[in-house]
Amino acid sequence: MRLGLGFDIHRLVPGRPFILGGVTFDHPRGPSGHSDGDVLLHALVDALLGAAALGDIGDHFPDTDPKWKGTAGSVFVIETLALLAKRKLFPVQVDSTVFLEVPKLGKKKRELAEALASLLDISPDRTSVKAKTMEGLGAIGAGEAVAAQVLVVVEERIAKGGTTKRRAK
C-alpha cells in the first residue's frame, strides 16, 4: 500500500463555470485557471502522483503548455491513472475535503463521491467527500477561493498466472 496527499486552491472569478469533481454547480463564479480549475480533481492528481513518487501535476500537465488550456480535470486523472497502471499501482480508497463558503455542497457530496468512484473505478463506499467552511477567514472564508485536499490509498497488484489481482474494489 502507498499513500498520496494532494492539495489545490483556485481563486473564484466571474464568467467561469464552477466545476468540482467533474460536476458543474450553478454558481455565478468559477475557479480561475489554465485548465478547468477543478480543485478536487487537481488535488486528486497530485495525491495519485505522490503515491507513486512521480512528482506533481505541474510536472506532467504544466500551465505553460497550451495543450492543457481548458482541459477537464478528468483528463488529468485518466492520464495519471495510466501512468500509475504502468507501475502496477491502482487506487483503492480516496478521502477528500473541499474548503469553500459557497456554493454549499450539502447533498452534492454523495454525488461528488460517486463521480470520483466512477472515475477511479472503485466502489463508492471507498470514496469520501467532506466540505468545510473557513468560518469567514481568508480568501476562502470571504468566498473568493476554493481549495481541496485529497488523501489516496493505492496498492500494487501482483500478477499471478498472467493476470493482475485486485484485492479491493
Number of strands: 9
Instruction: Report the mean per-residue pLDDT as an integer.
Output: 92
Q: Strand order across the biggest sheet?
A: 4-1-7-5-6
In one word, what is the shape?
globular
Report strand %.
25-35%
Order of helices and strands: EEEEHHHEHEHEEE
Assembly context of the chains:
single chain
Separate helix tally: 5
CATH topology: 60s Ribosomal Protein L30, Chain: A
Structural category: alpha+beta
Helix content: 25-40%
Q: How many structural domains can be distinguished in the coordinates? A: 1
- The name of the CATH architecture is 2-Layer Sandwich
| Low-pLDDT ranges | 162-169
Report the end-to-end length measured between terminal Cα atoms: 14 Å
Radius of gyration: 16 Å
The largest sheet, given as strand count, sense and whether it forms a barrel, is: 5 strands, mixed
CATH class: Alpha Beta
CATH superfamily: 2-C-methyl-D-erythritol 2,4-cyclodiphosphate synthase
Report on the architecture of this protein:
This protein has 169 residues and is an alpha+beta fold. It has one domain: 60s Ribosomal Protein L30, Chain: A (2-Layer Sandwich). Helices cover 28% and strands 33% of the residues. The strands form three sheets. It has a five-stranded mixed beta sheet. A hairpin with a 2-residue loop joins strand 8 and strand 9. The radius of gyration is 16 Å and the shape is globular.
Fill in the keyword field for this structure.
single chain, 169 residues, alpha+beta, 60s Ribosomal Protein L30, Chain: A, five-stranded mixed beta sheet, two-stranded antiparallel sheet, 5 helices, 28% helix, 33% strand, globular, disordered C terminus
